[in-house]
Amino acid sequence: MADTFEPQEIADRVLELAEQKKYNDIKRMLSEFNPVDLAEIMNVIDEDRLAIIYRLLPKELAADVFVEMDTDRQELLLSKFSDKEIKEVVGGLFVDDTVDIIEEMPAAIVKRILRQADKETREAINSILSYPEDSAGSIMTTEYVSLKEDVSVKDAFEKIRRTGVDKETIYTCYVTDTTRKLVGIVSAKTLLLSSPDDKISDIMETNVISVDTHTDKEYAAREIQRYGFLSIPVVDKENRLVGIITVDDAMDVLRDENSEDFSKMSAVTPSDKPYLKTSVFKIFLNRLPWLLLLMVSATFTSLIISRYENVLTGISITLFACIPMLMDTGGNAGSQSSVTIIRSIALGETVPKDIGKVLWKELRISFMLGAVMSVVCFGKLMLIDRLYNPMDALTALTVSLALFITIIIAKVIGCTLPLLAKAVKLDPAVMASPFITTIVDALSLIIYANIALAILN
Amino acid sequence: MADTFEPQEIADRVLELAEQKKYNDIKRMLSEFNPVDLAEIMNVIDEDRLAIIYRLLPKELAADVFVEMDTDRQELLLSKFSDKEIKEVVGGLFVDDTVDIIEEMPAAIVKRILRQADKETREAINSILSYPEDSAGSIMTTEYVSLKEDVSVKDAFEKIRRTGVDKETIYTCYVTDTTRKLVGIVSAKTLLLSSPDDKISDIMETNVISVDTHTDKEYAAREIQRYGFLSIPVVDKENRLVGIITVDDAMDVLRDENSEDFSKMSAVTPSDKPYLKTSVFKIFLNRLPWLLLLMVSATFTSLIISRYENVLTGISITLFACIPMLMDTGGNAGSQSSVTIIRSIALGETVPKDIGKVLWKELRISFMLGAVMSVVCFGKLMLIDRLYNPMDALTALTVSLALFITIIIAKVIGCTLPLLAKAVKLDPAVMASPFITTIVDALSLIIYANIALAILN
């Protein structure tokens, strides 16, 4: 089904039925879909009809659909909802999702949401909102199943049956002592495969891996991935359990972090909306400062060219024609290394103290690459380029030698800068191709000119 | 704990204890760790001692540790294992993990593994191996809980208790009819919250989202993410259930796909091993062909420069000094668009038929960017660059105008190529910065020279 799922087509059919007031047909049609797909349909429904159609959704799905909708759609609905409707939706949401929504809404709506939430939920919302942005605490939920050590499996099941419907997951239960300290975990699988009289303390896993409320959320998400968990507990400084992060949220965190890295690596300020839904002006603003910065820093390269212009053209006009090839290859060689290292840092595989290992590795690789590339370059110059440019062996040698050194320098800079950035807590992703290219451009030109002076003068 | 987890330190302590033959201390020490962490310890243990230490692992964890270890370590152990040990490990693995291992092992070891697997497992292995690489079928597992429609919740729990220990997940159960066709799903949560006498057919969800065995595995993984599933069913052409993919495997697929995209976008052949564990020669081979290809294609740029060299230098030497700035800005502008679109395609947000929308968007953005950039460039040339280069308003106008057009062309090419690649089933990620830069370089030079001729001649 998903292959051919076209939200716009379904939205059109829904609106058509709405024109004819065939509301029961709409209800029947919508009941066929998963909440995620329903949210996509709601996202493209005509704004004037949105509230009417939304109210036709099956009651038990309404909140699940709401949480998946675009922010502007949520805002539109909330502004039209009665207090009772707000209470229903908020009551059907998990706390972490409510927090996500609150963070995007204007103050007036936030106030209404908080007024409609019960006391416990309001406290949970405020506690999650109090954690720093991008921390594990800021994305956790407080709706987990907690068990005491001394209860039996039978009692545990009873508690799950009684409270489980409101929990974000019941598949990993968290065992806490009387001071709310996390002492173990037990999976629903273990519970099911144990005998009803077993004590939780006898069947629980005590080597619990947890994260701190202030841990970076990306780190928490990677821990879930690394261990193949369905959820990870979040504890405070005293190891008291305060929440959990579930695997679906971890996947979203990782997707967003990856998208941010892709943006930064191509010199764009990350956007939290899909490309087609971001406004032209917003994209313009996300791109402009980087292009400006890089253009201004290229002034440096122009300066170098001007400085060596007479030198180079004085020797051979051919040297000039090779500048773009030299600069591009340097940029490419540098970005090969920088992107590899940036990714490796993001995955937690490489840390700043590996810098020695990384440098030694890149040095060997760049010698091999430099050697092959410069030999090929020499051959290319003598066989192909000579067809349209005056070329002699010494000129070809100059270009090849400059290429060799450029590749080595590009790779050394490319692997070093991201690690240095990480060491001083900057984002390594910013040290990708564009910046490296600018630096390598300038350096390669200086080297080129000096080699030319040494060999050809 | 995970923050300070240092596999090498623990491995050293283990080896120290092994020297002193304190095997019980080692056992106690190792029992504190999660299988994933144990695998990392095994990965750095001295090769000669690996088999001895591995055999000290708690029996119930041995297979879980094995599956997480590096391939070369697995091969080493398998080559030292007795048939009985192989049987034990394979018996403790899920089928999809066994297939992953088999795909990496030499024929002799594969033969031994298959001989030690029971008939059912062997058949499952062969069926998974028969699906195309990168298909959903190739990464699924056949160990799921299937239920019949007419059984009661009580009977379902009995079946789960009886067979659940060997299933990759028991949290989503799959309901099939007598012809093995998938007719519904029921979560363990629903089962737990239902009464024991309820019939499965009354509580199951019938709008099942599934993927086909031949669906791309990345698509299957993104569906799991999109819907927040713990697993997704894989069906054959007749909608018969043949396997499932679990969320942990989906996360790994997405991580690897992201890493591949990062590699391709920086002109590197993707590697399936972490950077620090890949050999220098292998990295060299992954990088060389792309650098060579890009260097050779830069010949084209040299050709253009040679063609216009006399024209440009004849007019003003300053024009030459601005070439790198022009080329770099064009490259950056192009890669901003291409990387944004490539990512958007990877996330399934943009498809080739959106090309009209994308082009219109990029055109507006590039006009805005081009306008601001060329004004700033003009100012920079007249205020800063004139300090070291002869500069007049007409020259500055030439450069700024060329910059304006270059940015527009770069963005149009940058957004078009990835979509075209996708349309003809090529990998959009290859259409990233390096290739775009090469094309934009050449075009921007031609434009530059012609504008110069028109304005300054």
Describe the structure.
- 2 copies of one chain form a homodimer.
- Chain A has 457 residues and is mainly alpha-helical.
- Chain A folds into 3 domains: 2-139, Alpha Horseshoe (MgtE N-terminal fold); 146-246, CBS-domain, CATH 3.10.580.10; 298-456, Tetracycline Repressor, domain 2 (Orthogonal Bundle).
- Helix content of chain A is 66%, strand content 6%.
- Chain A has 23 helices and 6 strands.
- In chain A, the strands form 2 sheets. In chain A, strands 1-2-3 form a 3-stranded mixed beta sheet.
- In chain A, α3 packs across α5 (59-68) and α18 (299-315) runs parallel beside α23 (433-456).
- The mean pLDDT of chain A is 90.
- At the A-B interface, α12, α13, α15, α16 and α17 of A face α12, α13, α15, α16 and α17 of B.
Report the CATH superfamily of the largest domain in chain A.
Answer: SLC41 divalent cation transporters, integral membrane domain
CATH class of the largest domain in chain A: Mainly Alpha
Number of domains of chain A: 3
What is the β-strand count of chain A? 6
Largest interface: A-B, 119 and 118 residues
What amount of the residues of chain A lies in strands? 5-15%
CATH architecture of the largest domain in chain A: Orthogonal Bundle
Q: What order do the helices and strands of chain A follow? A: HHHHHHHHHHHEHEEHHEHEEHHHHHHHH
CATH fold-level name of the largest domain in chain A = Tetracycline Repressor, domain 2
Give the mean pLDDT of chain A. Answer: 90
